[in-house]
Design brief:
Layout (H helix, E strand, L loop, with lengths): L16 E10 L4 E10 L2 E7 L10 E4 L4 E4 L1 E6 L12 H10 L2 E6 L10 H14 L4 E3 L15 H6 L4 E3 L8 H14 L2 E4 L4 H4 L4 E2 L2 H6 L3 E2 L2 H17 L2 E4 L5 H12 L3 E6 L1 H5 L21 H13 L4 E2 L8 H4 L16 H10 L6 H9 L20 E11 L18 E11 L2 E5 L1 H4 L2 E3 L2
Parallel strand pairs: 1-4, 1-5, 6-7, 7-8, 9-10, 10-13, 11-12, 13-14, 14-15
Antiparallel strand pairs: 1-2, 2-3, 4-19, 5-16, 16-17, 17-18
Helix pairs in contact: 4-7, 7-8, 8-10
Pfam family, one: DHOase
Protein name: Dihydroorotase
EC number: 3.5.2.3
């Protein structure tokens, strides 16, 4: 089984479309200008100057004038809640949500019911994705059985059945000895260990960042050292064992510093930051809106600035959503009682574009690069806009403003921390693995088919 086979989706017809006059931006292919792009049989067949290409018979023409065409995004960290938590999300709704956000690939976490920790569960998930997934999905089973930290899963067997890597996401690997053993097995079977970094003895029953806001609200806090101390420990263990680790959802200055030092020392470590940690701080929790409750929590402005600096200097490798859907009744409780997590697939690009690109904090090309590179951290191909490549593209209207949640969500859940915000940048079309996975209703009226 090749690594590309580790991604599965439901069958879908190959796209035949001509996108005309769009501003094509692909930093890896040095594309940054207005072009026509022809997708034929699901592959990028031609890239030409604006107005130079004609649609073949049977191909649909889509007016891209005034819009941007990017490589579609890849998210290495989402929760699709299958099996056992389908009241929150499932493969159909989760991948529909991803496609609506411009994503062509997502990787699902194992904190399901039961935990994805055996080949039988993994096989059932892959079979379900072959029926229901709108875009390609990969799966990362647990590092330890039941995510209990006591016994390693059958990592080699899981890899042979399609596991992209391993993670106990939602829980840390508390035992240093267990992590060391996992890294030793990982060197033999391949894949990466993705780590949720949190010391429960420090985070305790905290519900938000430990600081002046938590003190004023009277809510138990989670100190940043609960994350950063495990980041430093696990980088040291990975360096000693020569293993590969990926640190999930960084939130703190100290964590960024630890990653930067580990990379300088030659440790095989990558990491991610989430849109909510890049754009919001613990000040947002003053509303006591449970959609602002996530783990790790929103931290200080200084922490946010450190994450942005980490993106700029390459310390932070990618932007990942940690899309964590919950049912409405689960979030409509007092703040301390609500589960951690926010949805994010439909708002990831727009939130970062609105809050960081439009003000000039980040370059658009850098954001596109960080949103598309996530798969490469798991040895998956990076989407590219080049002739001969399978089409993974998303067409975005950067000038289009929209209110988050105003017309509902493609996701089954609505616990989005950006709910009610007016954002710029609407995804109009997503082509994933050569097939149209999402089309905004506004696109239909300007499209035509050549016959």
């Amino acid at each position: 089984m090749s690594l590309i086979d580790h991604l599965v989706r439901a069958p879908a017809p190959a796209a035949d479309i001509l996108i005309t006059g769009a501003h094509v931006l692909d930093p890896r292919e040095s594309l940054d200008g207005v072009h026509d792009v022809l997708v034929r049989g699901g592959q990028i067949a031609r890239i030409g100057d604006a107005g130079s290409l004609e649609a073949p018979d049977g191909a649909e023409t889509i007016d891209g004038a005034g819009r941007h065409l990017f490589p579609a995004f890849v998210d290495p960290h989402v929760h699709l809640r299958v099996p056992g938590q389908e009241h929150k999300e499932d493969l159909a709704t989760g991948t529909r949500s991803a496609a609506a956000g411009g994503y062509c690939t997502v990787v699902a976490m194992p904190n399901t019911t039961p935990v994805t920790d055996s080949t039988s569960i993994l096989r059932s998930l892959r079979d379900a994705a072959l029926r229901d997934a709108r875009i390609p999905v990969g799966f990362m089973p647990a590092i330890t059985v039941g995510m209990m930290g006591k016994e390693l899963t059958e990592m080699a067997e899981l890899r042979a059945q399609g596991a992209l890597g391993f993670t106990d996401d939602g829980k840390p690997v508390q035992s240093a000895g267990m992590l060391r053993k996992a890294l030793q097995y990982q060197r033999l079977c391949g894949g990466v260990l993705a780590l949720h970094e949190e010391d429960p003895s420090l985070s305790g029953a905290g519900a938000m960042h430990e600081g002046e806001v938590s003190a004023q609200l009277g809510i138990a806090g989670i100190p940043s050292i609960s994350e950063s101390t495990l980041v430093a420990r696990d980088c040291a263990i990975a360096g000693y064992e020569g293993g590969r680790v990926h640190m999930q959802h960084l939130s703190a200055i100290e964590s960024v510093d630890a990653i930067r030092a580990a990379k300088a020392a030659g440790v095989q470590v990558t990491c991610e930051a989430s849109p909510h940690h890049l754009t919001l701080t613990h000040e947002a929790v003053r509303t006591m809106d449970t959609r602002m409750k996530m783990n790790p929590p929103l931290r200080t402005e200084a922490d946010r600035q450190a994450l942005i600096a980490g993106l700029k200097d390459g310390t932070i490798d990618c932007i990942a959503t940690d899309h964590a859907p919950h049912a409405r009744d689960e979030k409509e409780v007092p703040f301390e009682q609500a589960p951690m997590g926010t949805t994010g697939l439909e708002t990831a690009f727009a939130s970062v574009y609105t809050d960081l690109v439009l003000p000039g904090v980040l370059d658009l090309a850098l954001v596109v690069e960080k949103l598309t590179v996530g798969g490469s951290l798991l040895d998956l191909p990076v989407p590219r806009i080049k002739v001969g490549a399978q089409a993974h593209v998303t067409l975005v209207d950067l000038d289009s403003e929209w209110v988050v949640g105003e017309h509902g969500y493609a996701s089954r859940s609505e616990n989005c921390c950006f709910a009610g915000r007016t954002l710029s940048g609407r995804v109009l079309l997503t082509v994933a693995a050569g097939s149209i996975a999402h089309r905004d209703t506004s696109l239909t009226a300007t499209s035509e088919v050549t016959v």
